[in-house]
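Hi V.,

You were right to ask for the full record rather than a summary. Here it is.
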Amino acid sequence: MPSEFNEKVIEEFRANGGKVGGYFEGSKLLLLTTTGAKSGNRVTTPVMYLPDGDRLVIIASNAGADNHPAWYHNLLANPDVTVEVGTESFEAKPEHIEGEERDRLYAAMVAVAPGFAEYEAKTSRRIPVVALTRVA
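Predicted structure:
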């Protein structure tokens, strides 16, 4: 069940063609819908993203917590995801990015959203980077 905060962001996103104010104002935001690893329910989560060619890159930072966010566990259990960007909705295939490419993409996210540097400093876990590619 999404938090009240996420519910408000999702509502605002859908009402304003993908634009939101408040905490995420000016950020590139998508809505990621996954299938719950345990519940089997569809769950939608607002996630910041970074465009990378045809891919949308998302980062499982969980604000620097020592555990991965729920959406990441869901994506591992069931990689069929739906992405909403702006007014568009499409199915996507997640790809886990490792090594130098992961570090490059994480650094690119830090460049546009410096909070991600703090998240990395707060946790000892290696924060996963995932690229979403539209399914034709």
